[in-house]
Q: What sequence folds into this?
DNA sequence: ACCTCCAAAGGACACCAGCG
DNA sequence: CGCTGGTGTCCTTTGGAGGT
């Protein structure tokens, strides 16, 4: 199918509804910007967006089941093109989409290049060329160029007189289907349809290419349609299979455990296969209702009738129904949105469903499959299998490696650990089994709590474990106890599949741009395979890294940060959760409270690095309005913390608290960093930092606080004395932004113990992530406004 | 503790230019 | 003639600061 859409975002729903039966879509004038994400359910997208200008852009959408590979993505002068190669029953075929704007000229070399890449090709595109002898009404300049290309002989065009463009009474054939010799004979049923929406413009062209394309291999993981599962049947079948395993069989060797696990896995898999249908991977188009689909069909019918009769009544009928269709699609969209919104408000905001919905709209992480080349260490991988193996090599060599540990106490620790191990071995051999056996109730309890996450290589989904039977639990208890007793984990459980997520804004060609996510069952001497588009790589050993969701990860983090609280005295309490840290203390007098917190914070500060070192690079690039907002926030928070009234001048606050204005603070930090870089003679860093500084200075300072207000002296004096405790702590440890959000002091007027809490909130993490991902300034701006919003919410909550 | 003023921010809308 | 993005205008809301 080929069409010039003029903004694909507006018409996605209609295209999906009308042309879902077609496997390959060539779309011109997508109007997509490079930073915009676009995905179509069930399709791989290959796009070439127009840079630095409006309009334009081409896109090829190819059904996900078809094996395909992008080999050209080029813009020559104004000509935009994307070419993808597919394997067919008649050998390789290159499919290209080309857009030539009305103002541009056809670049012959683009067509030559396509032909050079593969001399069996199919080119679809809005060439804006009219050539009378091939079915157009007239011939224009680009038509002459097209004629020259056709005269060279290698490309031919579909010769019919169907017009592809209509506006008012003007009709012309300006979209073309070009193909090389054998391929063109396989094209039939060429048809044009009513334009999208209500406008008069390009018509969709559909045709049938009578050859079969090679399909991608099926996913190595079995995917079931759990919605249609018959769980009763599953439990019945599971018990039938499990009964075949002898419960009295003793598990005495490692081999026994391995075979027993495989047998159990097989039972579950077989039962699942019988009790639930496999997910068929069919495209569900939920965006358009059945009524609308009927209307769309009607639109087709009426359109054809009008083209045949060309009478006024049919025309009016067609006009009316096309308006109905676009209204219906719009209403469907609104309905869907309101439905989503109503489920959101009905649910608890902490539930996973809410966040899934948010993610859907946020679509920063939508799957972007990439079918181009992958380059690693001078080798280029072209197909999925090669790519998967390249990733395997990359992860094995660079990511999951264990580097020799050369820290001072490493050897001592090692010998100590070894002696403990020896001792334990002796004890276990003498006293049978130290561990109390795992009971069936414990297993039931764990099984019930399993989340519905993706299965590992054994293809056993947690859903099927949650629907356990008593017999299964007995078997599981037996094998778990055997595992604990023998200290051997079945080989099958050590395998992992790694799927890849492309880090935003990174070069797709380089393996390091991808974040590996392992789908695994266990740990300890694991092996893994990389999965790309259903193709598995060779398996390789994982030597480092902790599994997602494993209790080990937080444990290791705790070990890592354990000493951060070592030097903090007893009077200060602290809480550590994942990457969040909080300190708090209580006291009768403000003075001692201040001292206590200050010393604790200083100790922590020694350990902790200032967030600004993570965040400055992005903060400094934001525009003035963000700085202003941050300044306002800082002022506000300081007032809140100090218990000062609204009319206190900001200058005065900063003067008394000795907290610099946020931007000045940033500059100060930056200058420090520059001087440090200079002492280390790191020229590139120095240059970068200086550039940032100049950007910062170019933003004119608007927060001009002029007159210091006269403030009732008594209040201020008491207030400042208390406040400096919170504020000095804050400024020394964490960036003003974060501290502000959370530093609160109970006003001195309140009798009894007052408490000060400092927390490094999520702001720190968000800023840190923002830098590491390297988002665009636009995204950062949004992110920062979100952070600020969040901080404000905290502030409000504290009031 | 409250009022008032000013400026900035932000939303709704119209309009225009550029692209096709 | 449609779509997009930018600009400008009008209006309301909000924030900051001064004043009583």
A:
């Amino acid at each position: 199918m080929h069409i010039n859409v003029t903004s694909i975002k507006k018409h996605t729903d209609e295209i999906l509804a009308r042309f879902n039966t077609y496997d390959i879509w060539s779309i011109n004038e997508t109007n997509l910007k490079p930073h915009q994400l676009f995905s179509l359910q069930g399709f791989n997208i290959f796009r070439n967006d127009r840079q630095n200008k409006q309009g334009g852009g081409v896109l090829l959408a190819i059904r996900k089941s078809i094996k395909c590979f992008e080999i050209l993505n080029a813009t020559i002068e104004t000509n935009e093109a994307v070419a993808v190669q597919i394997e067919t029953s008649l050998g390789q075929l290159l499919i290209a989409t080309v857009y030539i704007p009305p103002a541009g000229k056809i670049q012959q070399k683009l067509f030559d290049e396509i032909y050079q890449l593969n001399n069996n090709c199919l080119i679809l595109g809005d060439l804006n060329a009219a050539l009378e002898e091939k079915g157009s009404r007239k011939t224009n300049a680009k038509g002459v160029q097209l004629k020259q290309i056709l005269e060279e002989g290698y490309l031919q065009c579909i010769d019919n007189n169907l017009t592809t463009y209509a506006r008012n009474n003007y009709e012309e054939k300006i979209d073309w289907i070009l193909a090389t010799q054998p391929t063109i004979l396989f094209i039939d049923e060429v048809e044009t349809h009513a334009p999208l929406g209500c406008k008069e413009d390009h018509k969709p062209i559909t045709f049938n290419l009578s050859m079969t394309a090679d399909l991608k291999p099926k996913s190595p993981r079995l995917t079931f349609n759990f919605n249609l599962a018959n769980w009763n049947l599953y439990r019945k079948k599971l018990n039938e299979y499990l009964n075949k395993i002898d419960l009295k069989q003793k598990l005495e060797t490692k081999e026994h455990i391995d075979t027993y696990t495989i047998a159990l896995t097989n039972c579950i898999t077989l039962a699942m296969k019988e009790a639930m249908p496999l997910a068929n991977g069919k495209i569900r188009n939920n965006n358009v209702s059945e009524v609308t689909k009927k209307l769309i069909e009607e639109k087709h019918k009426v359109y054809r009738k009008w083209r045949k009769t060309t009478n006024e009544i049919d025309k009016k009928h067609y006009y009316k129904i096309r308006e109905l269709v676009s209204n219906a699609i719009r209403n469907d969209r609104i309905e869907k949105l309101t439905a989503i919104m109503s489920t959101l408000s009905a649910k608890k905001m902490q539930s996973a469903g809410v966040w899934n919905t948010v993610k859907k709209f946020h679509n920063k992480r939508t799957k972007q499959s990439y079918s181009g080349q992958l380059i690693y260490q001078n080798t280029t991988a072209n197909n999925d299998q090669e790519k998967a193996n390249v990733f395997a090599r990359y992860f094995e060599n660079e990511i999951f490696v264990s580097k020799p540990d050369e820290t001072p106490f490493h050897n001592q620790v090692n010998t100590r650990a070894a002696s403990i191990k020896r001792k334990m071995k002796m004890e276990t051999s003498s006293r049978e089994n130290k561990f109390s056996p795992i009971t069936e109730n414990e297993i039931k309890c764990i099984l019930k709590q399993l989340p519905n996450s993706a299965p590992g290589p054994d293809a056993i989904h947690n859903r099927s474990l949650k629907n356990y039977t008593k017999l299964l639990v007995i078997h599981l208890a037996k094998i778990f106890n055997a595992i604990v007793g023998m200290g051997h984990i079945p080989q099958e459980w050590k395998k992992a599949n790694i799927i890849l997520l492309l880090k935003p804004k990174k070069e797709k060609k380089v393996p390091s741009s991808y974040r590996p996510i392992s789908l695994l069952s266990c740990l300890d001497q694991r092996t893994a395979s990389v999965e790309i588009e259903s193709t598995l790589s060779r398996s390789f050993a994982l030597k480092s890294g902790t599994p997602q969701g494993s209790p080990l990860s937080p444990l290791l983090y705790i070990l890592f940060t354990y000493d951060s609280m070592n030097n903090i005295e007893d009077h200060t309490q602290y809480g550590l959760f994942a990457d969040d840290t909080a300190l708090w203390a209580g006291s009768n007098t403000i003075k001692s409270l201040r001292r206590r917190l200050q010393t604790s914070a200083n100790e922590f500060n020694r350990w902790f690095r200032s967030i600004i070192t993570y965040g400055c690079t992005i903060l400094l690039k934001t525009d003035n309005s963000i700085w202003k907002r941050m300044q306002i926030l800082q002022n506000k928070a300081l007032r809140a913390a100090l218990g000062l009234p609204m009319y206190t001048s900001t200058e005065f606050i900063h003067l008394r608290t000795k907290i610099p204005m946020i931007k000045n603070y940033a500059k100060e930090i930056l200058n420090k960093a520059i001087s440090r870089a200079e002492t280390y003679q790191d020229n590139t860093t120095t240059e970068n930092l200086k550039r940032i500084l100049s950007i910062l200075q170019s933003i004119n300072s608007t927060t001009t606080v002029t007159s210091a207000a006269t403030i009732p002296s008594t209040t201020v004096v008491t207030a400042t004395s208390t406040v400096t405790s919170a504020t000095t702590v804050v400024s020394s440890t964490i960036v003003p932004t974060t501290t502000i959000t959370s530093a609160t002091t109970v006003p001195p007027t309140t009798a009894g113990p007052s408490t000060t809490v400092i927390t490094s909130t999520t702001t720190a993490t968000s800023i840190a992530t923002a830098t590491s991902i390297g988002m665009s300034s636009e995204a950062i701006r949004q992110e920062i406004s979100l952070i600020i919003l969040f901080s404000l919410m905290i502030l409000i909550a504290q009031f």
Remarks:
- The two ends of chain A are 59 Å apart (CA to CA).
- The mean pLDDT of chain A is 65.
